[in-house]
Amino acid sequence: MQFLIRWVLAPLVRMIWRPRVQGVHNVPVSGPVIFAANHRAAVDTAVIPLVTPRRVAFLAKDQYFASRSLKGRLVARFLTALGYVPVDRANAKAGLAALEAGRTVLEAGGAFGIYPEGTRSLDGRLHRGHTGVASLALSTGAVVVPVGLIGTHKVQPVGKKLPRVARVEVRFGRPLDFSRYDGLEGSAAIRRAVTDEVMDAIADLSGQEYVDRYHRRPGEPAAA
Questions:
Q1: 131 CB contacts (<8 Å, ≥6 apart)?
Q2: Residue 131 CB neighbours (<10 A)
Q3: One digit per residue, pLDDT tens: the chain, 224 residues?
Q4: pTM for this predicted structure
Q5: Which residues pair with 36 in a beta bridge?
Q6: Rounded CA gap, 108 and 102, in Å?
Q7: 171, 39, 181, 215: which is closest to 114 by C-alpha?
Q8: Strand pairing of 84-87 and 210-211?
Q9: CA–CA separation, 74 and 177 (whole Å)
């Protein structure tokens, strides 16, 4: 399955959507790395692994892996080959489970993808990042590669299941090394400073207007 994705699906996607990729030389070829990106569409999670030289793990709802039907097993194998990691998002401790899953990938020297905003942007702006990205970077020593995704919302607009043909651009920034904060993972101020530095880099790459507040979907209560 990994062979089919790398040598068949990836070239096909590049031929149809012709993504522009900048800064791929900034991606470390080995060692733990966190890809921290803006989030405009569901397709984002497929775009990043298909244009990087690394196998990138993203989180996925565990129910995608639970079906025992033939279709369900094929979907699970496909997602696993892409690098998706199942996590129970309905669990009250889903946030902790997500961080633990990411930490496991990084401690094994792998690459992990995360959207610091926590959800897709519905207004096109880049919103304040949650500090999970900082917790992972500080606890594992992984570098953070900021990623700017441009045009993915045109490929898969909100509410549309099937992707459209539209030009996408993926910009990889220089790796951010936070080893200067070794031993300070427990400091909320340090986690916020690291997260804000990551978000500033993402904003520079994506060209989005930055909003210093957490993104809320309609009907969601304000964050504490």
A1: 188, 191, 192, 194, 195
A2: 19
A3: 555 566 667 777 777 778 899 999 999 999 999 999 999 998 898 889 888 988 899 887 677 677 788 877 776 777 777 677 777 755 656 678 888 989 999 999 999 999 999 888 989 999 999 999 999 999 999 999 999 999 999 888 777 777 788 889 999 999 999 999 999 999 999 999 999 999 999 999 999 999 999 987 655 555 54
A4: 0.86
A5: 114, 146
A6: 10
A7: 39
A8: unpaired
A9: 38
Structure tokens at 142: 């992984």
Q: Are 33 and 27 in contact (CB under 8 A)?
A: yes
Residues in Cβ contact with 2 at an 8 Å cutoff, skipping those fewer than 6 apart: 55, 81
Residue 143 pairs in a beta bridge with: 33
Query: Rounded to an integer, what distance in angstroms lies between the CA atom of residue 19 and that of residue 150?
Result: 10
Q: Are 91 and 67 in contact (CB under 8 A)?
A: no
Asked whether 34 and 137 are in contact (CB, 8 A), the reply is yes
Is residue 27 within 8 A of residue 144, CB to CB? The reply is no
Give DSSP secondary structure letters for the chain. -HHHIIIIIHHHHHHHH--EEE-GGGS-SSS-EEEEE---STTHHHHHHHHSSS-EEEEEEGGGGT--SHHHHHHHHHHHHHTEEEE-TTSTTHHHHHHHHHHHHHHTT-EEEE-TTSS--SSSPEEPPPTHHHHHHHHH--EEEEEEEESHHHHS-TT--S------EEEE-PPB--GGGTT-TT-HHHHHHHHHHHHHHHHHHH-PPEESS----TTPPPP-
Tokens describing residue 11: 């070239």
